[in-house]
Write a structure and sequence with these properties.
There is one protein chain. The protein has nine helices and twelve strands. By secondary structure, the protein is an alpha/beta fold. Strands 6-1-5-8-11-12 form a six-stranded mixed sheet. It has a two-stranded antiparallel sheet with strand order 2-3. The chain is elongated and about 95 Å long.
Length: 291
């Protein structure tokens, strides 16, 4: 058997040591490339963030907190006396979603979203129907918004009629919502119609935001994204937040922004009475979500 003499000043050991170092360097680069590739891989998640708000008592302006986008005319027009000047605000609130039915966020964005205080990382199926497309979702959101406006007008008209006021004006009103879709602005639209038709400052100059679907009979229904909507409401100055009573479980399990009073309601009449209590300062009379 041939024996190799490697005692030549360590040249053999130096060769293998250098070779191992090269392999290690290449391995590190390979691992780094794999990690970077994985971070850019698509996930099954989307990110929900607080969206813009709009005061339905004033001009049609989307408020994003750090910027505003204006549309032509008033948010609600064609109802009430033009001389009436509302005080305070009644804000509809929205959510922004990063991702779509056909496009989700990459892994690095989903990971970052978990550590962002005002973001929620959600499975795509929670936000978008399985099998839907972007165009289908946009069409659906537009249809739901149109339904919310029609229901708000009908609910406001019935409420005004019950108070002996000419509710027919509500049916002829124009509501400008810009690019906002979905059904959850119905409650606030109805309240805005009632305030303008009555010519009475329902909020007493207070800043109020709200969310909730509404039926033509005035029933307030559950909505999604309530945690993000509360953050948007507080961000843009609201001190009170009208929310569907059916959302109380989600509200209690969410982070309620400091200084925001959440008021659960189940009908348009209850929301109207809540605004009266807010206006007069009877805050102890306001309902609250219970565990």
């Amino acid at each position: 058997m041939k024996v190799m003499d490697l005692g030549d000043g360590g040249k053999g050991r130096g060769f293998f040591k250098g070779y191992a170092a090269k392999v290690a360097r290449h391995a590190y680069w390979a691992v780094a490339i794999v990690i970077v590739a994985l971070l850019f891989c698509p996930t099954n998640y989307v990110i929900e963030k607080p969206g813009p708000t709009m005061n339905v008592l004033g001009p049609a302006v989307l408020n994003y907190g750090d910027r505003k986008v204006s549309f032509a005319g008033e948010a609600i027009s064609g109802v009430g006396k033009s001389s009436f000047s509302p005080s305070g605000s009644l804000d509809i609130v929205t959510v922004n979603v990063l991702g779509s039915p056909s496009s989700t966020v990459p892994a690095f964005m989903a990971i970052a979203g978990y550590f962002e205080r005002d973001s929620r990382v959600l499975p795509r199926e929670v936000v978008f129907p399985i099998g839907s497309s972007l165009s289908q979702d946009e069409a659906s959101q537009e249809k739901l918004m149109a339904g919310a406006k029609a229901s708000a007008k009908a609910a406001a008209q019935a409420f005004l009629d019950s108070r002996g006021l000419p509710g027919s004006a509500a049916a002829k009103a124009k509501i400008e919502s810009g690019p906002i879709g979905g059904p959850s602005a119905g409650l606030v639209f109805a309240l805005g119609l009632v305030e303008k038709a009555e010519g009475t400052n329902l909020t007493g100059g207070k800043d109020v935001a709200g969310t909730g679907t509404i039926s033509s009979s005035g029933k307030v229904g559950q909505v999604g994204g309530v945690a993000s909507k509360m953050i948007a409401a507080k961000r843009d100055g609201a001190a009170f937040f009208l929310a569907p009573e059916a959302n109380c479980a989600q509200i209690l399990s969410s982070r309620i922004p400091a200084g925001l009073k959440v008021v659960p309601v189940s009908t348009l009449s209850q929301a109207f009475l809540a605004l009266q209590d807010i206006s007069s300062g009877r805050l102890s009379s306001l309902p609250a979500c219970r565990a």
